[in-house]
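Troubleshooting entry. The earlier prediction with coenzyme A gave an output that would not parse, so I re-checked the input for stray whitespace and re-submitted. Clean input:
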Amino acid sequence: MRILLLTHAFNSLTQRLGAELQRRGHEISIEFDIADSVAEEAVALFKPDLIVAPYLRRAIPESIWSQYTCLIVHPGIIGDRGPSALDWAIQQGEAEWGVTVLQAEAEMDAGPIWASAAFPLRHAKKSSIYRNEVTQAATGAVLQALERFIAGNFVPTPLAACGEARGRLRPLMKQTERVIDWHRDDTATVLRKMNAADGFPGVADTLFGEPCHIFDAWPEAILHGELGSKPGEALARREGALLRRTRDGALWIGHAKRAGDLKLPATLAFAPESAALAEAPLQGWWRAGSETWQDIAYEESGSDENAVGFLHFEFYNGAMSTAQCVRLQSALAWAKQRPVKVLVLMGGADFWSNGIHLNVIEAADSPADESWNNINAMNDVARELIEAGDQITVAALAGNAGAGGCFLARAADHVWAREGVMLNPHYKNMGNLYGSEYWTYLLPRRVSEEGARGIMRNRQPLTAQSAAEIGFTDACLAGDPQAFRIDVARRAAEIVAAPELAAQLSAKRERRARDEAEKPLTAYREEELAHMRRNFYGFDPSYHVARHHFVRKSLASWTPRHLARHRDLGWKVPT
Ligand code: COA
């Protein structure tokens, strides 16, 4: 079938659906929902059998839905309508939520239902629920709807006939409904309100007396500040986060956005004010327990010669600033000194890594200098990993990875991705960035020179399955996050217990020495950085322009040509 994905943006859900449909042999093209006339033009060019709208912010025009079946993905249970579906569900503490695939009609989200799927609603950030449960449920429901569409005899159920429907029309959630009353709300309520607003629009609040939006809340069970500190007061800082008193405890605020500014680590958004606060540092890299917030945490399983090390780094949105890279490198160097023969880099729950931190770069006095510092710091982490001679290293991707983050993962001996994870192992979307992280060393030896050129040129997202099939990763493991962790631990334990481990380690060291003699890592790095220097400091400002639009979330004014296949020069209207 020819399926047009009509979407507000090429977000992770759209990427996943596009890739899953393509895997099943369907012909996919993508158009951003920019204006009715643009969508009409796309439909006229592509002549789709079906239109799927994974992520829309406005209604499909009648000129399209009256002629084509348009399936809308709504992140809510049957009957739920309105633009703040997940926000309401999380804020009101629903135990179960769902996704509905319905047909576009005149009234938004009220058309007949083709498929739906339900899931238990975790206590987690909206963005995390969207990238995990919603994406998984939406994929299943769209595939089911498609089967029904292809069968030809399925009659979608009108909303009025859904007797058990719990959902209803709810308005856009306003900031007045999100407001935190620091004197009355307990910690659980503050967390719920902040989770319901993450990563957009955040909760409108104040910090140090200044208005801002706050994001990225983490519970804290140990530190509660001085006796007499008041609810809402900022008590201490740790890395990028601020500890805030609540009525019955405290929590960390990881990110803040001041009016007209970018979303930034809270201590950067309020740099002088934060600097005056006491620091509450972590005592080393060992996981301190779940009671206190810790962005980098190390733990071990097994004992003595069978021990496996697990290094977690939970960086918001997978973005890794210079400071975060420096800390991660030092944690990795420390972990390499532990008496473990297998070291697993777990990344974070939602993202493994998305490469250099574009928001922090944008906010710097010299974005070019900060880009340079950041890519060098990323390279230092990658090198630390490549040069781990005493361990078999594993990158275990529970969450998505993009750009430099993919190649940082590839610097490990094994890359295992959870089914459902999306990978974007290319850089060019960010203003034709050349990329570094030793990708010119790491990629061709996995997928051949030709394969590497294809991946970089095509700029397509890969599902965990297709990444394993083409050899970019080594395995696609269980889709359920808990099952994935168990699977990773089991496989790591198998490596460490295998009789051939010693031989594997010496083969690894020999190979590295051979590669180094043939062409040193510094040579790869210098060549890549020569290109990056031009990207950052050269006369072509494409990278700076692309970054500006990315971090400011500028509305797209056209669909990139590598996505809109129907706009290819050679595209012929199907007969
Ligand atoms: N730096 C800063 N923020 C980043 C980031 C980065 N490298 N990568 C992603 N983010 C942020 C987004 O701005 C967004 O922020 P929000 O919480 O304010 O909405 C959030 O992470 C999620 O990103 P989004 O694009 O919605 O996620 P996705 O899963 O739909 O798409 C990518 C994933 C990787 C395709 C996309 O995020 C991307 O292109 N990132 C940039 C990668 C890059 O070019 N890195 C630099 C070169 S190494």
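This one parsed fine. The domain at 2-161 is CATH 3.40.50.170 (Rossmann fold).
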